[in-house]
From TrEMBL, chain A:
Keywords: Hydrolase, Protease
Gene Ontology, cellular component aspect: cytosol
Organism: Chondromyces crocatus
Domain Metalloprotease TldD/E C-terminal as annotated: residue spans: 237-440
UniProt-listed Pfam families: PmbA_TldD_1st, PmbA_TldD_2nd, PmbA_TldD_3rd
Name used for this protein in its record: Zn-dependent protease
Keyword check for Iron: no
Residue ranges of domain Metalloprotease TldD/E N-terminal in the record: 32-85
Amino acid sequence: MGKEMLDIAKQALQLAKQKGAAEVASKTSLEREVTVSWRDGKLEKISEASTRRLDVDLYVDGRYTSMSTSDLRPEAIGSFLDNAIGLTRTLSPDTNRSLPAPALYEGQARVDLELEDPRHSALTAVDRRTKAQAIEAAARTVKGSDAIISVTTAFYDGHLETYRVHSNGFEGSQNSTYYSAFAEASVRDPSGRRPEDYDTVTVRFYGDLPDVAQLGRSAAERALGSVGAKKIPSAVTSVIVDNRAAGSLLRRMMGALNGNALQQKRSFLEGKLGATIGSRLLSIDDDPLLPRALGSRLYDGEGIAARKRPVFEGGALKSFFIDTYYGKKLKVDPSSGSASNLTWKLGSKGQEALLKDMKNGVLITSWLGGNSNDTTGDFSLGFKGFAVRNGVIAEPIAEMNLSGNHLETWKKLVAVGNDPYLYSSNRTPTLVFEKLQVAGT
Amino acid sequence: MNRRAFVELGATALAGGLLGCGSAPVTPGALEMPSAAGAKPSADAARVNYFGRFGVDEGMIRETLGAALSRGGDYADLFFQHRVRNHFVLEDGEVNRAYGRIELGVGVRVVKGDQTGYGFTEELTRDALRRAAQTAAAVADGPSRTGPQAFHVDALPQRYPLNVRWDDVKPEQKLPILTGINANALKADARVKKVTVTFMDEAGAILIADSQGRLIEDVQPMTVLSVSCVAEHNGRREQNSYNVAGRSGLDFYSRDRLDRVVREAVARTVILFEAVEAPVGEMPVVLGAGSSGILLHEAIGHGMEADFNRKGVSIYSDKIGKPVAKPFVSIVDDATNEYARGAINVDDEGNPAGVTTLVDKGILATYLHDAISAKHYGVKPTGNGRRESYQHAPMPRMRSTYMLPGPHKKDEIIASVKKGIFCSSFSNGQVSIGAGDFTFYVRNGYLIEDGKLTRPIKDVNLIGNGPKALEQVDMVADDLVIDEGGWTCGKDAQSVPVSQGIPTVRVASMTVGGRAQKKG
């Protein structure tokens, strides 16, 4: 199948050039995904899907469009390109639009990122069903499990092939696999609430899947742990954010690092390269070259060779995420328009020790909605979790909110855990802040 | 896979730089609807019209349904979809980029009890369809059942007929809308420095055929226009946006609407320079008419989706027939608002879509059903079985959710609050189904001090609990507005377009997630 998809990408590129495009980036992808979900002792849903797609970036008469289709019949691709090129010609010219300079394609790392598990094709329907079933069974073994109303589990996995060719010389392909296991438990709360919580893991290699029984137990324990949750008084207090939740808080700031936000004056970080944004503990690299990691890649979405680089170092902002287009508009060199894996300079302590150090405050275990303003840095986010008293987890809390401004909040980062969350490309450890505003009663 | 569900404005998603659109290589051919409004159902009308251009015919459909039922499922359906979406973006004064996306495919679903098998393919050939059907069939394990030998079609209402379909509108007719808005927004206020305009149009069609012999085609247009402004004043910057959406054609963009889009986008941005920190803690909240319908979407809408109740995991699972709100509170989910973003002629399982009453004079009335949950509860489907695309199985989803007008007046409601906030525009919300806790994010609002709107506030999340918040709705005005914004609802990683609305209401107490300490 791979050869065929690469050929489609190449043919579309040639055809687009024949039809008048000056430059073309052509990408095809083929993805197969299987999902098995299981609920309360029986199969809930199975689905199996193969998706195919052709994406072309067209540069015609100094004008630009990006088009995509799932209709890959040869005759359909011809009329797709005719229409796309015709549409491109109706737009305004833009001298900043071009493919990346070929020099940026050079210097790809010579490493095996190990993103494709050769064993994937051997996985059977029975393997998947057995996993999903085992996760549920484990969830029902925890203490207090008679309060469980329902357990939904799932196992899903996929294989993705992508092929990219550019008219100025780039050619690449990246194949990858993934496996995810998921469990969610809903439990009875005497108050009438039916709190739910979940746990999930995603890995590249089947052999890297942790004990899925532990996943089921963790989902059930998390849900049972939130029985009786209530809001507590509003306060300015110390806040510890669980490693699974901490990545979202960081992501709320990342939008402002984007070239588009900078050029459009929608970034509170504009002009702050080198400035102190956080405490000295804010040290984060963008590292695309970690074997088996979820955000790893040899080249980015524009074909630019991937390199490790610092984003924050000792609190100082070290780099932005700038693609070719906004690089030209901003008159700076492009880095990459998107993050790969975000990795922290870790602390030495786990969450338990960090709780002891913090003594009193709140532990945030998950977020509920809210938003962050890239232009001003203001954010306001719903959360649930636990009160922390005398260094230990106390009663569960919910219906609470955290608010602040990124320019102040990250300076209040007082500790970083040794426990990065590995089931995301945003590998954030437990984070501890002091003096943040939480809202409740 | 997280059961949490959310809603957000199209603009939120657009801001991230989106992909997807496609100038449509649609084979020319007149579109004939299976039946126009008022036409009598007739076996003769049951033929493939729109999808005939892709080689789909009745024989292929019969064969595929046969394969789907080959292992004894109770029920099977096919969902063909062709969707062509274009985005045009104006930035720095020029419409200098477009994104397009073409989707073509068919999903095959087999249902056995409340178990679902699903497969889809993007190759509309007999072989590929048979393979997808066999995948879906595997959910059952019994003797083969026969599929339908003949198809029939029921008359569909026509809630979004267009004079000119988007496939026939030239880019040259769309581009002046974007450039005009840019010029007017920059002219409207000297503080406006950057304007981004995104224009989306979509020509879509679906065909649903099922093992009961139904065969239905619907043509589903959509358009969204979104304007974002960045303003500068005294060294400070603020950004805000406004957008409008509907299942409409080019004539949706009347002079009046385009003027309003500019006026709202600019006004919502520049007022932020005057905004003070929002307060923190519990207080009365007055929600302005229109987009505050987000309260209903999060506080009750998702919790009333019958799949959550069938599984017993919704906070509303045991509340049907019970009082949940004051007697002057009635809430509906309505598919019939002509040209609304949340309107549908038929749901994605082929069931008629009308008005479903969620709360009738304070009493919890009906869940939102798809075919599986309707069968589970022994009721008729409510036409809420919706899906993002042929890649997804349907589930109960909202359409246009709003509260009916009540007995109070807007001014009277504001005057009743000594210290609280008034909220007028929102960007997104989210709910935790079982706990019932929900949030929604306010972009614009005002402090209410001694019964009067005083200083503007911005960027604050409100947080509450569904049933408690409904009980606390203690005043409802007579000024219902169904919001014209481009709301998108997410659930189990599937997005569908929705509408929402509400009159001005007072919620006696909610937690406001601001930073200014409550005084007095």
